[in-house]
Design brief:
The chain has 253 residues and is mostly helical. It contains 10 helices and 2 strands. A hairpin with a 2-residue loop joins strand 1 (46-51) and strand 2 (54-59).
């Protein structure tokens, strides 16, 4: 992250970070720094005792001080009027996933909580557009407008509330996925789409959606501990290493 300026950053107090922000022309306050710590944008500052009669103000590491500045710089470069916190926190989580030197897991755990709490915070129009795209992806070409609409309403309700009626979801998605009528005395014929590891039935999509909602809920309430997060990161890193060369090969020269 620090490139050729590795030696330019030193530890700093909350007041130093505020001064760094003001030097960039960004309004800042100690409360802003505290808020960033609470949201996982920054790590907890470390205590520093230099006398027998008390402690000096807590300090942020050089890496954290640079992170604060870089995030502010990125925010200021954006053509958007205001970048929401949930967008900046993605940078923090990316650094945690690929590097052990800047963002440590206790900070990442708070950042995941912030990210999870922001998930689903979108307009009804955008939520409807996203769900409609999912419905069209799953729908059989002969699925009726009524079947598509029923699936969209159930998915929208789940995205809005975070609660899953698995039986109802299974029913409407099965009708969407395999819209032909059931013959009396015959088992229902359900289609499956081709996937990288074999046929993908509708139950697969329901299981993925359910797992996603449960994970978001657990992250929101910090029910996933640091050891579990570290295990997830250990699984992710080899996948990312395999992904990068292929992604680089597709980039325009």
């Amino acid at each position: 992250m620090n490139g050729n300026r590795a030696n330019a950053w030193v530890e700093g107090t909350s007041a130093d970070l505020v001064a760094d922000a003001l030097a960039l022309g960004v309004k800042a306050s100690p409360r802003m720094v505290t808020s960033w710590v609470e949201d996982g944008m920054l790590a907890n500052p470390e205590p520093r005792k230099t006398s027998a009669h008390g402690s000096d103000p807590r300090v942020f590491s050089p890496e954290q001080r640079e992170l604060f500045t870089r995030l502010l710089e990125a925010r200021e470069r954006s053509p958007l009027g205001r970048i929401p916190q949930r967008s900046l926190v993605r940078v923090v989580l990316y650094l945690w996933l690929i590097d052990d030197t800047v963002v440590l897991t206790p900070q990442a755990r708070r950042a995941w909580r912030t990210r999870a709490r922001a998930t689903g915070q979108t307009t009804a129009v955008r939520r409807s557009e996203n769900v409609r795209a999912i419905v069209e992806q799953l729908a059989h070409p002969s699925a009726s407008l009524k079947q598509r609409r029923a699936a969209q309403l159930v998915l929208e309700e789940g995205e809005r509330t975070g609660r899953i009626d698995v039986d109802r979801l299974t029913s409407v998605l099965t009708e969407l996925y395999s819209p032909w009528p059931v013959q009396p005395g015959m088992p229902r014929i359900e289609r499956a789409l081709p996937g990288p590891f074999g046929p993908v039935p509708v139950q697969h999509h329901i299981a993925i959606w359910k797992a996603r909602q449960q994970t978001i809920r657990r992250l929101r309430h910090e029910e996933i501990d640091e050891l579990e997060l570290d295990r997830v990161r250990a699984v992710y890193r080899p996948m990312w290493a395999d992904y990068q060369p292929g992604e680089s090969a597709t980039l325009p020269r």
